[in-house]
Design brief:
The complex is a heterotrimer, with 2 copies of chain A (470 residues) and 1 copy of chain C (204 residues). Chain A is built from 22 helices and 8 strands. Chain A has 470 residues and is mostly helical. The longest helix of chain A is centred in the last third of the chain and has 38 residues, at 309-346. With 204 residues, chain C is mainly α. Chain C has 11 helices and no strands. The chains are: A mainly alpha (470), C mainly alpha (204). The complex binds calcium ion (2 copies). Chain C: The chain crosses the membrane at residues 12-32. Chain C: It is found in: Cell membrane. Chain C: InterPro entries: Cytochrome_c-type_ET, Multihaem_cyt_sf, NapC/NirT_cyt_c_N, NapC/NirT_cytc_sf, NrfH.
Amino acid sequence: NRKNEAKYKYVPQVNISEHEPRNAVWGENFPKEYQSYIQTADTSFASYQGGSKMRDVLEEDPNLVILWAGYGFSKDYNQGRGHYYAVEDIHNTLRTGAPKGPGDGPMPATCWTCKSPDVPRLMNEHGIAEFYQGKWADKGEEVVNPIGCADCHDSKTMKLTITRPALIEAFESMGKDITQATHQEMRSLVCAQCHVEYYFNKNLPGKEGTPYLVFPWKNGMSVEDMEKYYDEIEFSDWTHQLSKAPMLKAQHPGYETYLTGVHADRGVSCADCHMPYKSEGGQKFTDHHIQSPLNNIANACQVCHREEANKLAENVYERQRKANENRLKLEGFLVKAHIEAKKAWDLGATEDQMKEILQDIRHAQWRWDYAAAAHGASFHSPVETARVLGSGLEIVQKGRIKLARLLADLGHNAPVDMPDITSKEKAQAYIGLDMEKLNSDKEVFLETVVPKWLEKAKEREAKMTPQINK
Amino acid sequence: NRKNEAKYKYVPQVNISEHEPRNAVWGENFPKEYQSYIQTADTSFASYQGGSKMRDVLEEDPNLVILWAGYGFSKDYNQGRGHYYAVEDIHNTLRTGAPKGPGDGPMPATCWTCKSPDVPRLMNEHGIAEFYQGKWADKGEEVVNPIGCADCHDSKTMKLTITRPALIEAFESMGKDITQATHQEMRSLVCAQCHVEYYFNKNLPGKEGTPYLVFPWKNGMSVEDMEKYYDEIEFSDWTHQLSKAPMLKAQHPGYETYLTGVHADRGVSCADCHMPYKSEGGQKFTDHHIQSPLNNIANACQVCHREEANKLAENVYERQRKANENRLKLEGFLVKAHIEAKKAWDLGATEDQMKEILQDIRHAQWRWDYAAAAHGASFHSPVETARVLGSGLEIVQKGRIKLARLLADLGHNAPVDMPDITSKEKAQAYIGLDMEKLNSDKEVFLETVVPKWLEKAKEREAKMTPQINK
Amino acid sequence: MLKNILPQKHSNWRATAVFLIAIMMGLGLFMAKEAEIVSYMSDDPKACVNCHVMTPVYNSWMHSSHREWASCNDCHVPHDNIVNTYYFKAKDGLFHASVFTLRAEPEVMFMREASQEVVQDNCIRCHVQQVTQTKYDGWIETHGANRTDRQCWECHREVPHGRIHGISTIKHNIAPIPTDTEQTVIPEWLEQKINQDKQSPHEE
Ligand SMILES: [Ca+2]
Ligand SMILES: [Ca+2]
């Protein structure tokens, strides 16, 4: 009909093939969108807690090293930056280790899922479960284009589209049908392909052994619902090095927390704030420079709020400060709880005595992480974030009082000495990480393995010339 | 000139004298405002946690009996209802006891301050400090008209006006000049005469011994600022009966918390929501039926929000539920802390051992009360309310861990038995209140003393006939 | 005062504005005083309430969603260019003032057509992004077709003066009058008492 015609009418310069992963190729047809997309390479903006600047989160807050002791995140954790860096950053992070080649390294192939438009291409070529199989390093030469057009768009119609099976399956698990999503919902759902809590399920019937990407939404998306989900299947991401608690790592539940805020309630989508319209030479287009809206208040906020930019930024910062205040309190208690639990083990506590305590630590830290890991949550949904932090403060109290009594029973009735963790280095030394080795191994990997990956990819892609229209 | 003519365009039926306390007399001139004011007598509306219905808060939540043990509030505490009942309710509450006559009873005259337009009249006749002197019962026959016109209006111009010295003095203490307030600010400041945290200062230089009404705003209005204020002057409202902690009672810091919310930030005043415009027969006027805006969403909210009424109510309830969730958690811990502290005393703890713990209890409960006592705060400022509750959860944890260690030292290393406080009656019995006597004394007071007060007031007022214009 | 009213020095239409104001003043001291006509050039809504007939609209605006965002002139005066702004103001000022002085104000006023166009343009000026972007579909349904051929306030009937119009619709006003500075919010008696208290601390 005419409406659709109007909406998606354009004269393509090139014929973009269905699984074209190279953003520059799409850029031939859509220069404005591409040019703005390319700006996600800019790393000059820093806000109170966000922005595109590289921010070493462990350095800013060494407590985290203790919270994640025994898990990859204690080695290296930076705040996310522009989509342009998705591939580069997964190469760089110490969490992915220094694989020497295929089959090596700590991480599964599933890690690639949210980093590149090569992913839908590969899933199409090999199958979904097949994509998730094997090591991360196995696909190093296949996944090289950072997040881009083919992740969100249909190459024929340019319509927004869902390219990640995990989101579709998650909707199914909730008894919902994602194909019924409205256009406005799609403007958030394309983001919900990645900005969500996830885990790797190795026990899916028929796919045993494959770290299959799953969003734990079956019972709902609240912190309690997902906790219940994980408790029921007795899942844990890792066992804590100090406390031995069976831990959960919350990963950026951005979409889930956003949904509980007033903007979602009023139908405001992710794209409304992170991809507002922009005018250039009398032409309007969607700004694909996805970033902190605080670097773009005029377009991102003032369309709806005719407040001064300063005031709007201050509104955001105020909510973030208030959330951080209680987050840091909870965090401090969690650090204590892990170290107190270690003390109890050291003094001879039994599994039985520790069981409830460890469960409390698991639940309290899960809540802390749920509130902390989605970097936007303290603005997207300040009231829910505060509620979750409060519930974490409740649980950690219960656990620590049990610990105090247990320690007293074991002969230690006094505050437990805390290590010096005033810097990232000190904290990492305390948990016994050999950072020098990790870093030098990584260097070797980046200097030897990665260049080969990129070279092979170049060769491969050289054969995929797009068809130019005349 | 014509402008002034405009000011007095209506033909006054009666000449209202400067300190006319009788609302019905003002009502002769302003029937619509009066008629709507009179509707604050209606007690049929109940929302999730508010409304005009009589709600026995102790019955709804018997924990409070423990939190306030040793203080009047453990005897009787109802949620505030319409202004119409201000005088009746202060007669009725068990907190004011059963005075036999002048000079008797537990409460000072200062209690009257926020209950009636007779107050400015008496302050004018006798002086401010003089008004605060003596017992509450001393002025029983003088203060009989519930909150009304003369509390907020100038009788000549009908301009909004401040009639309570405490607010003026509080502004001075902050180095601010209330006479600079804009018209829009006045639409909240008239409420800030009463809907604020207060205490009775008996040590004001030159006024020693008089329980002078003071708003503790000198350092600011946040929960920390006021806490600091009270700590500095070592003020406490009472000593807790169980824990012996030097307690603070937060009283409805409605204005203070409102100021931290987004509505205040956007210039929305109390009157915008609680006294919106109303249309009747082609006339618009300010609805003086001050009540829960949820009983009047169309006028109170939909002026600004084009949302459905149900949705707006649900927005409010959601914020209230989330606040209550954490408030109840903090509350539960506070109950435990008081009873654990009692146990410690029973086991022979020393003042020295208890000092820090009691200070923690004081500060944690102050935060709880600050968040709980302003009934609107969880909507007026949900983020600040959550922040305050979180900080209470932090402090109570510190205190209880010290308590657990102290108890272990004293030979009790196990959870402390909690009494049965599942109903108001049981909780009151636990703290040893003789409710039967309190109630029967009150009955006698209401049947013998109060009727005399009202009778004398009638005689007195009969002499104050308003001057009718012809 | 003139400094605030007049456009920037050196702008070439400053003369026009001065000229127009001069005409207005020429209408006579009596009228200027009566109508506080000069204050009509100000952007302060209180300027409009100098005429009591404007108080009902002032008060309804005061109770509207727009109080914190849009003053009278934001809606009722063109903002397309600054010459137009002052020209329209002066013209309107003269018209209103004449009617007012003659006591010919109707019970229920209506915007003249010229004013309507101005207002409509101003609604769009502020809300253009909200009502034209298809991307806000999810937030504001159905603005596409409707907005172009109808007046905004056909639907948004409450914006900003409410549904009831007419100069008797608001009987008692406590709208502030800008020239009225003699009163403060503290009544005299209370100020006295407080000062008394301060001077001679109470002795028992
Ligand atoms: Ca970032
Ligand atoms: Ca109530």
